[in-house]
Amino acid sequence: MLLNIDLPSESVPPPAAPAPSASPPRGEGGAAPPAERRPSGAGRPPLAGLPVLRLIRPLAVLALLAMILGRMVAPATVGLAVGIERAARVVELAGAGASQLFAIGAVVVAMALIGAVLRSRIPHALRISAIVAGSFVILVVLQATAQRVPALSAALIGVSAAVLALGSAWEALRVPYMRPVAGALGLVGASAMVRLAGVFLALWANERGSKALAGATSSVATAAFALDALAVLVGTVALGASSEPRPRGAEAPRPAPRLASPLSIAALAAALLATRAALAGAGDDASMIETLFRRALDRLLTRPVPAAPLSMQLFAAALSVAVAALAVAAPPRLPALGGALALLLVARSAPEVPLGALSLVIAALCVALAARDERGFWAAVLATERERASGAPPAGKPDTAGPRQVGAGDDAR
């Protein structure tokens, strides 16, 4: 099967052939004894390799294109200037096409990840949550292709995806090399839960006309924005996570994590420039590019509106796009984690939207599986490093060195 590819085992000397005269012992009546049965746990091979994780990064590229073209640029170009109606239509069609491709690919990848979860070693509670939440989100996404999703269903898929994200983040935090991405995932899940509570309070305040509930809504929205901004910053740190291997010596100290790297600095610089252009886009003498930045970033601002400066909200939105783009564009050592980071940042501001909830579910399942399948995950990493170091093996000489098993203790590769 696609999801169950074992690593090549180490060469073991073949057992000695039985003597011709020897015959298996027989029980009473001359019948052959029944075959020895393996324990139920021993018959389940590890999910070594997990080929489905290789699809996370291409899927994240589609999600990023769908968000930039369909959610940001296409609405921002409407009425931007005279004579660009045809260009706006082209961008709108491109965004719609990217969204459709992402929806199809995300449903397929989510189903494959749920199948991998069934055969994984993650805890039973998280396994059940993944099956229930993932299946429910997939059903709502399929429903959204034919009709508008009801408000209750939208709220439920947001809560389901957030709960799954929190559970997967808690499970992945035990593995040191997963902690930056797991921290960002958990913060996005917590922010989604708090923001959905703020939406409920806002609807309740509108129905009752209560100023006290309106004030509570603003406080809850501000708390959700704080968690969301912290998730984006943790994702920025995840770009600069140390990639140096951990020394194997007993007295060797653990290398300190790199909180800043060229990728994280580039993301911060791009976010600052985009924020400056967006702030200038509100003026009467703003250029077309500045107005485009302002309109595009406004589409990523969360609702209800938090009690935070607009510049900070625009910076968090711009930084999330920059980090997601660098996570899929740069050649990371762990491509699946880069794709998961991009997916959770795409879903951060819209967990109640069907495709946003599905993105968060896929990121959560990817993080949970990668944290549990150390053997297959690190085998893929070591294979990629061997290809980068020595190139592909020449034809006729396959690489006979089997991938080395790496446990959870080797945590800083």
Would you spell out the secondary-structure blueprint of this structure?
Blueprint: H1 56-77, H2 85-118, H3 124-144, H4 151-172, H5 179-208, H6 211-239, H7 262-280, H8 288-298, H9 310-329, H10 335-346, H11 354-372, H12 374-390
Features:
single chain; 413 residues; mainly alpha; 12 helices; globular; disordered C terminus
Describe this structure in words.
With 413 residues, this protein is mainly alpha-helical. The protein has helices at residues 56-77, 85-118, 124-144, 151-172, 179-208, 211-239, 262-280, 288-298, 310-329, 335-346, 354-372, 374-390. The chain has one domain (51-242, 258-385). It starts with 55 loop residues before the first helix and ends in a 23-residue tail after the last helix. The chain is built from 12 helices and no strands. Mean pLDDT is 78; it is low at 1-14, 16-24, 32-49, 242-256 and 392-413. Helix 2 (85-118) runs antiparallel to helix 3 and helix 4 (151-172) runs antiparallel to helix 5 (179-208). It is globular, with a radius of gyration of 25 Å. Residues 11-23 have a biased composition (Pro residues). The chain crosses the membrane at residues 59-84, 96-118, 124-142, 149-170, 182-205, 212-239, 300-329, 353-371. Keywords: Membrane, Transmembrane, Transmembrane helix. Residues 1-43, 388-413 are annotated as: Disordered.
